[in-house]
Amino acid sequence: MLREAKINRIKVCEAFESNYFFKPHEESDNIYLNAADLKALEEFDLSGNTRLERACDLFLPGNYTGLRFSDYSRLTSEHIQDNLITIQQTKTGGRVVIPEKQLLKLRKRAALPSCRKHQIR
């Protein structure tokens, strides 16, 4: 951006051309769950472990809706109308509407699970 400004004859601090300024690059692994992984987790019998079952009930709908934890953890039945989830995002303030397709996946699990901040007990 600074280079572009300089080309357009906008006065900029030329220190950006120094070797001290560089774009850091770091290799990282992309770890994710695909649809088959989520389906397998959804169908896995966790009835013998209520802690894992609760964690799964929080995790899967969060993935299906794509909401941030801060938004997903606030969901109530009031956010669901006309087969749509509508919520005002905490981080951005933007309004999000999630279609019926994702809502059906959400309803396969029990009712909307409540959670205490960042703890599952």
Automatic annotation (TrEMBL):
GO molecular function: DNA binding
GO BP, sorted A to Z: DNA integration; DNA recombination
Gene3D superfamilies: Intergrase catalytic core (1.10.443.10)
InterPro entries assigned: DNA_brk_join_enz, Integrase-like_cat_sf
SUPFAM superfamilies (UniProt xref): DNA breaking-rejoining enzymes
Tree of life domain: Bacteria
Keyword set, alphabetical order: DNA recombination
Protein name: Uncharacterized protein
Organism: Chitinophaga dinghuensis
